[in-house]
């Protein structure tokens, strides 16, 4: 579902800098891979390249069976809308929508409304343990619960790809472990391919594989 071959990225400027090179990775359906690395190693940049939000300077990127290189902005937007689910550190839950309405946003963007949409939202909230909180407002939820809303929203449209950028950075250790386990289990259950960017080795240990991003590529984490 995710295929990276010899991907490289540099930052231009007065002092050009190679962020990383020779990044090669395959993520299978039902697998969650954690990407570790020091601050500035380019973890979030790599995730943005997979999402088509940034461009590689070299190499190839294939997502959900599509090579990203020839796609224009409109085609990339449509691919993300259909095939990619995002989970962010800051939750990005809309404060003026109920929990159910927040989860339904990806379906609305795909013009899925009505009873089927409502049923899918309810089912996903049950799956993340928030079946009784659909009518709640975000301000009424804890940080761990808000991240569960974000996971439900990321998965409700059944994406092929799930990308998580430091999803436990704002959570206490107990809540963080629960969120990573939930994310991993839902990725397995939905048959999606997941990439988790994290600085936490405890979070990475809960993934199916953990790799460290260096300037020369990905290496197995120890």
Structure description:
The model has no long low-confidence stretch (mean pLDDT 92). Strands 6-7-8-3-9-10 form a six-stranded mixed β-sheet. It has a four-stranded antiparallel β-sheet with strand order 2-1-4-5, with helices on one face. With 222 residues, it is an alpha/beta fold. It is 35% helix and 27% strand. Helix 7 (173-190) links the parallel strand 7 (161-165) and strand 8. It starts with a strand and ends with a strand.
What proportion strand? Answer: 25-35%
Structural class, by secondary structure, is: alpha/beta
Whole-number mean pLDDT: 92
Overall geometric form: globular
> How much helicity do the residues have?
25-40%
Query: Quick one: CATH class?
Result: Alpha Beta
Number of DSSP strand runs: 10
CATH structural fold name: Rossmann fold
Order of helices and strands: EEEHEEHEHHHHEHEHEE
Spans of 5+ residues with little confidence (pLDDT < 50)? none
Give the N-terminus to C-terminus distance in angstroms: 25 Å
């Amino acid at each position: 579902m995710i295929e990276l071959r010899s991907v490289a990225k540099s930052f231009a400027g007065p002092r050009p800098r190679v962020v990383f090179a020779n990044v090669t990775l395959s993520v299978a359906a039902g697998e969650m891979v954690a990407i570790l690395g020091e601050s500035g190693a380019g973890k979030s940049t790599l995730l943005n390249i997979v999402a088509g939000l940034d461009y590689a300077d070299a190499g190839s990127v294939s997502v959900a069976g599509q090579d990203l290189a020839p796609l224009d902005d409109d085609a990339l937007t449509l691919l993300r809308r259909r095939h990619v689910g995002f989970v962010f550190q800051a939750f990005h839950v809309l404060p003026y929508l109920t929990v159910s309405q927040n989860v339904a946003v990806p379906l609305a963007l795909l013009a899925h409304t009505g009873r089927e949409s409502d049923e899918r939202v309810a089912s996903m909230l049950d799956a993340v343990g928030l079946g009784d909180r659909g009518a709640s407002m975000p301000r009424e939820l804890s940080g761990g619960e808000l991240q569960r809303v974000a996971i439900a929203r990321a998965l409700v449209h059944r994406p092929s790809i799930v990308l998580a950028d430091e999803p436990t950075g704002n959570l206490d250790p107990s809540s963080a472990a629960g969120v990573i386990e939930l994310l991993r289990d839902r990725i397995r259950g939905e048959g999606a391919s997941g990439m988790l960017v994290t600085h936490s080795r405890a979070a990475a240990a809960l993934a199916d594989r953990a790799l460290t991003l260096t300037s020369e590529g990905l290496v197995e984490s120890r």
